[in-house]
Amino acid sequence: MRAVVQRVQNSSIIVKERLIASIGPGLTVLLGIRKGDRETDVIYIMDKIMQLRIFPDNEGKMNWSLMDIDGEILLISQFTLYADARKGRRPGFSAAEEPDQALALFERAVNHVRQTGLKIKTGVFGADMLVNIENNGPCTILLDSEKIF
Q1: Strand partners, 131
Q2: Is 140 a catalytic residue?
Q3: Are 82 and 96 in contact (CB under 8 A)?
Q4: DSSP annotation of 16
Q5: What CA–CA distances, in Å, run from 69 to 51, 65, 75, 96, 118?
Q6: Following DSSP, what letter does each residue of 103-127 receive, concatenated?
Q7: What is the mean pLDDT of the chain?
Q8: In a 3-state reduction of DSSP, which class is residue 66?
Q9: Is residue 47 classed as helix, strand or coil in its secondary structure?
């Protein structure tokens, strides 16, 4: 499982010219689910995201987590995080999980965050979305449940 985590001032999703979700200060997370990912991957990634100390404390140091600032998460499924573009010019997506299995793990990720009491909103799984991100910093962190990076 892979995540692109962006610290944002605000973020929103529009589908078919309709606002689907928006958040204020917090994290916009693009989540890629790989074939073979399990619930342990979900828990590892989502716990890491919620506890990343990437928000400034009173002295301006990146020392506070999403939980410390009572921020929000906008979670977006993005199978293209498992694109393989090493050969040719058209990326392959064979490492990405099939939609049914990916949706189940995505929903598990959402429920895991909700159990903590943090606010979480999502895009529309499988839809073409317009994602507006006001990246604060900019601050972007890459995570991988296999700890590749």
Answers
A1: 13
A2: no
A3: yes
A4: T
A5: 11, 7, 18, 33, 10
A6: HHHHHHHHHHHHTTT-EEEE--TTS
A7: 97
A8: helix
A9: helix
Find the catalytic residue in 80, 101, 116, 125. 80
Q: Which helix (H) or strand (E) holds 99?
A: helix 99-114
What does the block give as tokens for 18? 């309709």
DSSP class of residue 2 equals: E
pTM of the complete model: 0.97
Provide the residue type at 70 as one letter. Answer: D
> Which residue, chain included where needed, has tokens 């928000």?
55
Unique residue bearing structure tokens 């900019």: 138
Active site residue 6: no
Among 6, 79, 106, 122, the active-site one is 79
For residue 70, what are its two tokens? Answer: 């009572």
Q: Is 80 one of the annotated active-site residues of the chain?
A: yes
pLDDT band at 120 (very low <50, low <70, confident <90, very high): very high
Task: Say how far apart CA 134 and CA 122 lie, in whole Å.
Answer: 16
Residue located via tokens 């790989």: 34
Domains defined along the chain, listed by start: 2-144 (3.50.80.10)
Label residue 27 exposed, middle or buried (CB < 10 Å: 0-12, 13-18, 19+).
buried
Task: With cut-offs at 50, 70 and 90, classify the pLDDT of residue 8.
Answer: very high
